What does this fold into?
Amino acid sequence: MPRVSCLFGRALGWTEKAAGAAAPLLLRLALALPFFRSGLTKWDGFLSLSPATNFLFEEEFKLHVFGQAYGLPFPGLLALAAGTAEIVLPVLLVLGLATRLGALGLLAMTAVIQLVVPQGWANFHLPWAAMALALIAIGPGRASLDHLLHVVLKTPKSM
It folds into this structure.
């Protein structure tokens, strides 16, 4: 029996290492994809927000706080910021560059989205927040530019 236990322990150790290497990459991809896809719908050419995006931020999207619905402040600026962030932050996550900062940005966006679409918490916002928090906690993993920069430049692992 000790031999079986040893083999099982080795297999479990290998599985743990493989999962530890794959998890950050898969988390980065899973969090980046929905935001990037949403970001693509906001643009109508290079650096030009679509009219539908402007309409949504000006007329449709409301902040739901304290039992009331309020219009967004500075809707044009928020539309531009959201559209830009939904393209830039996912690209950073996929590359594994400034991963913790990108995940923090998407976590903040998720919090705002929760205030605009409160009924989406169980299906979308909770998993997004969990993935962002996990990336902030565990970092980008070895398959990332952050890790490569750390190795090449001998910098602290804080990105």
